[in-house]
Design a protein that fits this description.
The chain is an alpha/beta fold. The protein is built from 18 helices and 21 strands. Strands 1, 2, 3, 4, 5, 6, 9, 10, 14 and 15 form a 10-stranded mixed sheet that branches. A 6-stranded parallel sheet has the order 18-17-16-19-20-21, with helices on both faces. Strands 11-13-12 form a 3-stranded antiparallel sheet.
Length: about 475
């Protein structure tokens, strides 16, 4: 198959969250299988990394944005068996951050991703690569399936091209006014509720759902939630129900070469399931030293997360005060300025027991996953989640809400299933419910034989991308057929 993946970020080139990890891993999985030729298109942001050997495609091509014309260039790199193409336009992509300033999102994000979407389609023609399938990710690429079914409908180059649209988080929809619809170059006849119109404007994400040949999201349980529950579907539950025959969930995996406690160069001692006690004890000592936590027998609770309402961390701020005498906390993440200040204050007022790092730090993330005993993830909604899977791989037991992909990936301990359980569920999502769950978890922690069995269960899970990649390739074949 000739496969194009289009996304606004992909690890290791540019990353703000789990989307990048998923896209990067899928590219490598598909390219490793015989018969596939895989191209990845990304915007050429200022902070793109690993591009010292970039090659430039000669020439430029033109993209209309409303009544203007923008020039686009292409450069590329061979990343294993994947060709990665970077869409260049300094006006739109030469900026300090991918999507936003410290005070809010870039006001022209609509134009930035109109240009990117058209540039992917025109770029394939520019280099002469005719895709069998274009796999689009999240709202930033939602216009690509729409262009294929409208503007490019009669373009012979794309006669046999199909599209798959993956929703990583339905809360982010790319909602813009009617003027954005006109800038994108669609015909006014298509501005109807059945197609583009969305509350008087346009939604990039809705457009992808309407026009893609097939749609999926990143876990089976989340696929059910966003169709049934208005709080989860964010206004698109009815549309998704109408396309249920073309909508499914495929759970994410993790890159087990990047996330491997036995070979992780960041850890003081590598460990597998047979050496987990010694390895995690060494990792905990190193983590405490780095984070200036006091040395005692308390368990360490880790949080690696975007600081966002979705993640439930506004509730955690108040809870930490109640548990600081029974556990230590290490928090890594950036996001909501108010939450950042709250965690800074907690760490300042509880030196030696609470540590907060307000930055993106991949090495520290590895150390937290290995050195913590418990990983706290009280999400209000969670399409799939990677952190709970990484934590299990490192023998750190996740405490998670009973939502989305967390249900598909964690087996909750109920007091009787110690042979199979891999973590704990928060059954009631509020402060009282989280406190009750953590209280029970800390009681189980004191029973080290039981805790050790749960840790080994967690580490033995197959969390690799292999099964998920096979499911995606089968969906690709169905979509093309």
């Amino acid at each position: 198959m000739n496969i194009v993946l289009a996304a606004s970020e992909a690890f290791p080139f540019c990353k703000t969250g789990g989307l990048a990890d998923v896209v990067g891993a899928l590219c490598q999985q598909f390219a490793a299988r015989k018969g596939n030729k895989v191209l990845l298109f990304l915007p050429h942001y200022r902070n793109i990394v690993r591009v010292s050997s970039l090659k430039v495609v000669p020439g430029v091509y033109l993209i209309p944005i409303g009544d203007r014309i923008e020039q686009v260039s292409l450069s590329y790199i061979n990343w294993g068996n994947v060709l990665v193409f970077f869409v260049g336009n300094r006006k739109y992509f030469d900026r300090p951050d991918l999507y936003r300033t410290p005070t809010g999102e870039y006001t022209d994000n609509d134009e930035r991703f109109i240009l990117f979407s058209r540039a992917v389609l025109e770029g394939c023609k520019f280099i002469g690569f005719r895709p069998d399938l274009i796999h689009c990710h999240d709202w930033q690429t939602g216009l690509i399936p729409a262009y294929l079914k409208t503007v490019y409908k009669l373009d012979a180059f794309y006669t046999r091209t199909r599209s798959l649209y993956t929703i990583h988080n339905i809360a982010y929809q790319g909602h813009y006014p009617y003027s954005t619809f006109l800038k994108a170059g669609f015909h006014p006849v298509d501005y109807t509720p059945e197609k583009f119109e969305y509350y008087g404007g346009v939604s990039f994400l809705k457009s992808g759902i309407v026009f893609a040949d097939n749609i999926n999201t990143v876990s089976p349980n989340y696929a059910r939630e966003v169709q049934k529950d208005s709080a989860m579907g964010f206004g698109l539950e009815g549309l998704l129900r109408s396309r249920s025959d073309h909508f499914c969930g495929i759970v994410n995996g993790i890159d087990t070469e990047v996330w491997d406690p036995e070979l992780d160069p960041v850890l003081p001692v590598g460990y597998d399931v047979s050496e987990v006690a010694e390895g995690k004890e060494a990792a905990k000592r190193a983590l405490r030293q780095q984070c200036k936590l006091s040395a005692d027998n308390k368990p360490v609770i880790g949080i690696v997360s975007r600081l966002d309402y979705q993640k439930g961390l506004d509730i955690v701020v108040g809870i930490i005060e109640k548990f600081k005498n029974r556990a230590q906390f290490v928090v890594l993440g950036t996001g909501d300025p108010m939450l950042e200040k709250a965690f800074q204050s907690l760490a300042r007022n509880n030196a030696g027991q609470v540590c907060y790092h307000g930055r993106l730090d991949e090495e520290l993330a590895h150390r937290i996953y290995a050195g913590a005993d418990i990983f706290l993830m009280p999400s209000r909604f969670e399409p799939c989640g990677l952190s709970q899977m990484i934590a299990m791989k490192y023998g750190t037991l996740p405490v998670v809400s009973r939502v989305g992909g967390l249900v598909d990936t964690v087996k909750g301990y109920n007091g009787e299933n110690e042979e199979t359980a891999t973590g704990f569920f928060i059954d009631t999502f509020n402060e009282k419910g989280i406190i009750h769950t953590l209280d029970n978890v800390l009681k189980v922690y004191k029973d080290q034989p039981v805790w050790g069995r749960l840790v080994r269960n967690a580490m033995r899970q197959d969390l690799s991308w292999d099964k998920s990649a096979r499911a995606y390739l089968e969906l690709y074949r169905k979509t093309i057929a």
